Amino acid sequence: MPPVITHTPVYCLDLDASRAFYTERLGFEVRNDVQFPEMRWLTVAAPGDTHELLLAAVDEHIPSGDRDAMRGIVAKGVLPVFVQVDDLDATFEALRAAGAEVLQEPIDQPYGVRDCAVRDPSGNHLRLSQPRAAG
To answer: Is the dihedral of CA 29, 105, 116, 14 positive or negative?
Structure first.
């Protein structure tokens, strides 16, 4: 069997706010939300997708000496998350109405997608896209 990517970490400053954003705003479903004594294991995924995002709390998943640096990286949106949606404009408007910080309004790109950018509650740069019809 070839290797399979199962989880991609998305470092978060507030797990509850991140969980709400990815589930209530983007329609992901919670796959695991388990509290261990030393950390919380929280994964979400798009319905039907096997690839999960690990919503990883900086204060639990990063060594203590590196936490301030990681908080800065997260807040600056240095580690983007790319998500394809069915209706980019409707998704964008719902996120804007919910108070998401807008980085880029929807535009048609020369490489075949319509995309936009917002920040999640931790500051992560979220790139949303929808393939454009060939034509």
So the answer is: negative
CA-wise closest residue to 117 among 107, 105, 99, 130: 105
Cα gap 98→127, rounded to integer Å: 17
Question: Is the entire prediction scored with pTM above 0.85?
Answer: yes
Residue 27 sits in a domain whose CATH number is 3.10.180.10
On the CB side of 135, CA atoms within 13 Å amount to: 4
Structural domain contains residue 2? no
Which structural domain, as residue segments, surrounds residue 111?
A: 7-131
pLDDT tens profile 61-111? 999 999 999 999 999 999 999 999 999 999 999 999 999 999 999 999 999
